[in-house]
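hi! just following up on the protien thing from before. the input was this:
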Amino acid sequence: MGLFSRGIKDELHRLREENDELKNTLHAFVQRHSSLNDIERKIAEAEKEFEELTKRNEELSSLVEALNNELESKNKSLENLKAELTELEEKRIVYEQETSETVPQYPAESEELLKKKEEELEELNRKYEELNEAYLKLESEFVELQNRASDSMNGEDVPAELKESYSAIEKRIEELKEEETRKKKQLARLEEQISLSEEIKTNLEKSLSVILNQLHEKEQVYSEFLFNRDEILEEIRKNKNLLDELNLSIESENKKLNEIKEEISARENDRQNLINEINKLENVKRQLQEGILQLKKENEALFEVIGKQKKSLEEYEKKKFELEEHALNVENKVSQTLSRFNEELNSLKQEILDKEKEISAKEKLLLEKKSTIAEFDGAVKVLEKEKQILEESNRALRNEEYELNDKLNAIKSEYSEIKNRIESLKSETLVLEEQKKSVEKEIKNLLKQSSQEYSSLDETKYRLSQDLNEARTKLIELENRYEQLKNDYKKLKQEASDIELKKEEYTARISELIALEKSLKTRISEFEKQLDNTSD
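and the predicted 3d structure came back as:
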């Protein structure tokens, strides 16, 4: 009995030890089961983090897509606007080249047309200001886009955070795998230990199968997580590339906007230069009108001088006829004693007749000069209607005007000399009248005084011939000067007609530029509407 009871005690002691071991094993199993629950909870949290990262990535993708669409629309609009601006710049360059090659001498338009041109310039100024405002608005919008892009680029920290979270999750999964391997080893040991208890073994097998299924599901979740993680990383990389492209495009558009600003400033400078040139042309026009009025006054004075000269020539002709009659009377009275004196008088008469022919020819020339002066008046009227001139032709015209003034001054001086000659002729005719009276008084002493009268008549004849020769040369010089003036004014008329043609060409080009500006204004308004729609 003592031996049996001792063996039973040993067996019970062994069973108790095994039971304690089983209890410890079950306690460890329960602890491991709780650790598995912790692992499941951590995996659920990781899945939530993954979903949040996915949502954030989708939001970033949608934001990048919206920014790309908006940037593409802005780029298209800016390209269209740049094309229109380049077209307008080419038109302006062509217009400046043509205006620099075909510079008119002076303005060929009336005051009303000049006012219209000034109004058109004011309209161009207003349109340029509107363009400048549109460009400033575009610049502000691009700055806003750039700020939005910079805000979106703050999401570049997301891939680092994702990588950190992914690395943490991977570490956790590695730890779970290590724990799984340890648990498998422990379960293998438990299976060896609980081989005596089939019920415990079956329970352990069931729990183990459940754990294995859970681990298999977790592995599937982990594989899906890795797959989704790679896709998210690829999408993030693509989005980062898109953001880089967006930044580059924004920088290029900023450069384009700066270029457009420079073009606008250049246009403003061109407009100001055009206004300054118009003001200069107005001053030149006033100077030309004053010069033309001065020329008209001088021509009128010249006509008066010519009329006075003609009257003096008529008086001289009358006195000549009187002298001729007196000479004939003297010849009849002293025909026998003064044959030689009669011959001299006949020769003087012939010379006087020649002088009459010359005077009639000079009268014809004066009539021609009158017609030339009438043509000159017509040319002056045409010149009064013309406005548009440029600097080079203006200088040439000023030089010609100075030359004409010099010529007119020379003509005035010549006419003053001729007038002095006429006065001297008048004085000589007075002397001749006195001589005539002396001849009438001393007709009784004709034989004694015939030689003296002959000598005095010879001297007067010589003086008259000299004066007539000088007058002839002066008239020839005047004729040459009038021909030169006529040619000069013909040239001026030709230049005026050329300027009129150039003015018509410039008017057509200005109308083309105005039409182009109107179309550009409509396109800018459409572009502003598109911008308003996009901003809404």
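DSSP finds seven helices and two strands in the chain.
Residues 102-110, 155-159 have pLDDT under 50 and may be disordered.
cheers
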